[in-house]
Fold this protein.
Amino acid sequence: MKKHNFSAGPCILPQEVLKKASEAILNFNNDNLSLIEISHRSKPVVDVMNKAQQLVLELLGLENKGYKALFLHGGASLEFLMTPYNLLPIDGKAAYLDTGTWSAKAIKEAKLLGNIEIVASSKDKNYSYIPTDYTVPDDAAYFHCTSNNTIYGTQMKSFPNAKGYRVCDMSSDIFSRQLDFSSFDLIYAGAQKNMGPAGVTLVVIKEEILGKTGRSIPSMLDYKLHIDKESMFNTPPVFALYVSMLTLEWLKNLGGIPAIEKINQTKAAMLYDEIDNNPLFEGVAVKSDRSMMNATFTLTDLTLTDKFDKLCEQAGINGLKGHRSVGGYRASMYNALPLESVEVLVNVMKNLKK
Ligand SMILES: *Cc1c(COP(=O)(O)O)cnc(C)c1O
């Protein structure tokens, strides 16, 4: 039987997607060739790219609004650098909100290219909350934030006004909840948290914002070039792209983001309810900023650690260990995690109390 996979990333994927993906490795489209041994310029692969791009824009409600979807290499981590390269004018300034390790890494890269103002940071309390007491300066070319802090289990519920462009790293909660995605000018996400396997990065960008910085941009970092080449400037990560496409198709068939949001709310409510009502457990993140995707918690009595870990293992639970910078536990409840897995975890928590 498959384990209950709470892994923070790479993440759980729908079983039917894994099955289709494995079939495509042996025989794609009944052409008696593998998906990963044919040209990325062949029609079947170009069709996969087009379909994936179309599904992204459709699911996010961004069709016919001037946005392009790209599937690139380098992970969300390379977007930390690509963002300032493409959006930060040579003499300009950008504003960043520091809500965790990933935000801090984005800031570090951006600082290589110019003047970066950190508008607020929650580092003082090990990133256990989302700062709200700040304004984005009007002279910032763009504002950058991280919608969901995978490591700390916090999530932005609202986003500040900004005069410049709005940029968001949505790696760990894209396609999980309804947002006005058109209020962002650039969204990026490593696929492996909530959309597919590692190896491909989704970038959704409003085309009109490009080409205004006065910089020369290295080819591989140039969004405009990737748009002009229809996301095939170089060989795209075909397999990761295909699995992402299948996952997006799965999500669409399920009813899209409104439908999955309801399921995600149910899963998160069930787990947080147990964390709050079981005296043996305690949540890490400030309640109002809790993430629907990654729930961080600890045991109130650490001498129970071995016992709890053993019960989890016996129940077939995988990937519950917290990130080393937070400790404790982290249950990642991405789109493909069945409600049943959360029930199993909650039962283990209840059994520990007994
Ligand atoms: C995992 C993660 C990243 C880094 O993604 P890579 O694809 O490994 O570069 C960036 N931001 C967030 C919010 C993440 O969860």
About this structure: The two ends are 26 Å apart (CA to CA). Residues 9, 75-77, 102, 146, 150, 169, 171-172, 190, 193 surround pyridoxal-5'-phosphate (CB under 6 Å).
